[in-house]
Amino acid sequence: MNTGRILTGLVLAACLQAQSPAGVARPPIGKPPILRAAEVKPGMKATAWTVFAGSTPEAVPIEILGVMKNAWGPKQDIILGKMGGRAERTNVAGGMSGSPVYVDGKLIGAVALRLSVFSPDAICGITPIELMLEINDFDQSRPPDARTPDNPNRRAAVDIAAPFAQASAGWTLTPIESPLVFSGFQETVIREFGPMFQQMGIRPAQGGASAALRATKLDADWRTSLLPGDAVSGVLVSGDMSMTVMGTVTYNDGKRVLAFGHPFLNLGPVSMPMAKSDVVMTLASAFQPNKVGNATGVVGSLRQDRHSGVMGVLGDASEMIPTRLKVRTFGESNQLLKEKDLKFDIFVQQKWTPFLMMVTLFNGLSGLNDFAEETTYRINGTVDMEGHGKLSLGNIFAPGETPQPAPMQMTFWWGDKFNRLFLNTVRMPKLRAVDVNVDLIPRRSIAAIESAFAEAGEADAGTELPVKVYLRPYRGGRIERTVRVKIPRSLPPGEHRILFSDADTLNRIQSVASQFNRFMDLPQMVSVLNQERTNNRMYVSIVQSRPTVYQDDKVMPGLPPSVANVMQNGRTGTRAYFTIPESAEEQQAVPFDLMVNGSYSLRIKVN
Fold first, then answer.
1. What order do you get walking across the sheet with 494-501 strand by strand?
2. At what angle do helices 352-365 and 406-422 cross, to 10 degrees?
3. What is the three-state SS of 43-75?
């Protein structure tokens, strides 16, 4: 054990002792003596440490009421206590999770649960320290009930009851909701995505910061940070916007830190930046008391997120994804009016990263004075991947007849690309950087493919057929384009179709085909995403009644039925083929400075 660290902690504790109620000394860094739940008796006088404002914890008297057997699970007891002092007014507040509780200088556990709402008594549940110390012994297994954005209702059994259910159906021990502090986020973002966080047991809270939190650099004082009772945060997003979840430090042996006393997201092994925090205030409430604060500096990395708490390692670093978002506003004459450049880092986790990419993109567009209902959004992004080059993404989104606003459509489209990368079952992608530009165009730039006309209803193979195509824009005159469609020499005589379509019509089948292959590797997935068409073009394709076979990132159109049958019969469970009865061979892509949607088929006879 590092003697210097312990002495530093003791000196700090001595300095703070005069500020503590009744002269109770603040616990220092180091392994404390412990008192197991089996040794705890009703009537014992205990002291908890938690921050109500600022960064210095205050002593809170607790009267031990007893031990609830098996309340946290089989052979997992919970200690019940009644909080006094300042907590008697605030009640058991969000952010107190992990507040260490001592009896005669011995650590018994962490304040982690509340018993009810609207109660005049601040009754808390204390997770025994022996349960929290078990976290250090866990392997790399992942809990089956991890809380992730794709399935927010997977919560621990003790955490199912909502506050209103508690009020109406008696009392239930529930983990104290951890405040998720949004700094640099618009209120509209919290309103849109807040319900999903609440379903995962995380209470969204508006925050702020004196400077941008950077999760890629450790603070110089990391060795002496996060004493028991200090506020601690896990960092999901940092930089020009930040998203952090706040709790309290229970234990610090000089290297490892235990906190919360209940799961944060129950992800098992993680690698998330761990930061110091300041508490601005603690909101007193009989229904939903909560701490409001800010993460101030990264001092280590959270490594385990388990049923009885989280464990972090001081001095360790976590990889984040550097992300740059540039939002540009254009005028009616397409002149650049202004731009906003945002830089932030995003937590790496297969289900959380795509969700955080969505939330940060939506936030970058929210709250702009340039926003208007009739606005078109043009997005272009690059994803730099280690070992797989760059992924290029681009599209355009305009208001339409659907109830979902254009920026939200773009947000979900953006998140879907990362979902498909991170849910890859072969290997985990490693993203070096993400760079995205969004242009705001002050009009509804959208047109639907209406019809097409060819003077001749038949053509010879190998010749070109001029076709007029008509598009109907939003509140404008009809657009006419003449395209010359080349009839392939290999096209057999008979009836065929010329398909004029938007990007979604052609992307949809290939996207479904790629989902059929559960073992598609990253290079193939990157290739599929790079092949996706953008919807500011009209695509001209020749459709014939021959099957198309999709495998991984490969498209094999116009196969004779006999060949397609042989391929289907020779497929394997890991390399599935996806077949459709027709083949649409793309001939050309006609660019437009607007979003194209819809499709039209023109029948022709080939001689």
1. 458-459, 599-606, 494-501, 537-544, 583-591
2. 160
3. CCEEEEEECCCECCCEEEEEEEEEEEEEEEECC
Give the E-state strand segments of 502-582 in sequence order. 537-544, 548-551, 554-556, 578-580
Question: Would you state the structure tokens that stand for residue 574, as one six-digit string?
Answer: 């890991």
From start to end of 240-287, where are the E strands? 242-252, 256-259, 268-283
Q: Does the pLDDT at position 605 exceed 50?
A: yes
Q: How far apart are CA 541 and CA 115, in angstroms?
A: 65
| DSSP-derived secondary structure for 558-571 | S--HHHHHHHHHT-
pLDDT digits (tens, 9 = 90+) for 246-261: 999 999 999 999 999 9
- The helix/strand count (H/E) of the chain reads as 10, 32
pLDDT of amino acid 161? 32
Paired sense of beta strands 595-597 and 446-453, if any: parallel
Q: What is the pTM of this model?
A: 0.84
181 in Cβ contact with 233 (< 8 Å): yes
Question: Helices 406-422 and 522-531, interaxial angle, to 10°?
Answer: 150
359 contacts 193 by C-beta, under 8 angstroms: yes
Within its chain, how far is the Cα of 571 from the centroid?
36
- What is the residue-averaged pLDDT of the chain? 84
